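Hi F.,

I've been meaning to write this up properly since the lab meeting, where we talked about keeping a consistent format for the predictions we share between groups. The idea is simple: the sequence comes first, exactly as it goes in, then the structure tokens exactly as they come out, then a line or two of notes. No screenshots and no reformatting. I'm using this chain as the first example so we have something concrete to point to.
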Amino acid sequence: MQLDLNLLTALDALLEESSVAGAAERLNLSAPAMSRTLGRIRRITGDQILVRTGRTMIPTPHALAIRDEVHHLVQQARGLLQRERELDLAHLNRVFSVRGHDAVTAVIGPSLTTAFREQAPGVSIRLLAEATTDTNELRHGRVDLEIGSTEPALPEISHDTVGHDRLVAAVGPGHPLATGDLTAERFAGADHVIVSRRGRLKDPLDDLLRQRGLRRRVVASAPSSTAGLYMAAGNELVVAVPEHMCAPTIGMLGLRVRPLPFDLPPVPIIMAWHQRYDNDRAHMWLRDRIRDALAFYERGE
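Output, unedited:
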């Protein structure tokens, strides 16, 4: 039997998008052409692959079982065929998905979009919020790169520590903590908003206060650093945020930054990606642009 290997690329797109229209757009095909391709895949595999439920389509159990292997095969084939080719940014057509802390994505977003518009006009990026739970999206290929503060546990996930930041207290210019020594007692005596994407009302700073026999009042939690800073700016609240990554928002809101009264280690900024992209030239170019953007803010420029 002669097998059209282009069907693997189509199958990969169909399983990633769970949509004939979405897969067609991704591969620059018409919807009818992709529908015919799905029909061919169904005949070859003897499986429906995608089935309709209401207005959406969901993968069959067989499709779920082969999804990761199909994606891996497609990436291997691309790497094999393109390994020795020079990266042609002007004609690169690709969509990157990057997940990270909101402060980090706010920092890298302007720099990346400038680089894409000037150097790679066919490239787009999806900046995604941090997940509330651990995911395997790097392994599955649904996310190209993650930026966080924890080294990945899976051996097939490559990573690089691209910088460090430190937590600071941010307050409005009229807040009592904006001047004078910021002691643990003064810090604990203020009203706080904490940043928690899970909506928690405690964080490790509460443990440090408890060791000193102190407690603080947490008025609210915010899902992102940006939201927390806006809440601090509009109320007499304190919020702890990464200093360098939040510098643009802190400056725009006119907030004051104070060192925390604790001996805290620097917070690492770790970039992680699946090892299948180790030698992918376009992915390497993306990683370099992110390093440049983060280094700029880490230097406080």
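Notes:
The mean pLDDT is 89.
The radius of gyration is 23 Å.

If this format works for you, I'll send the rest the same way.

G.
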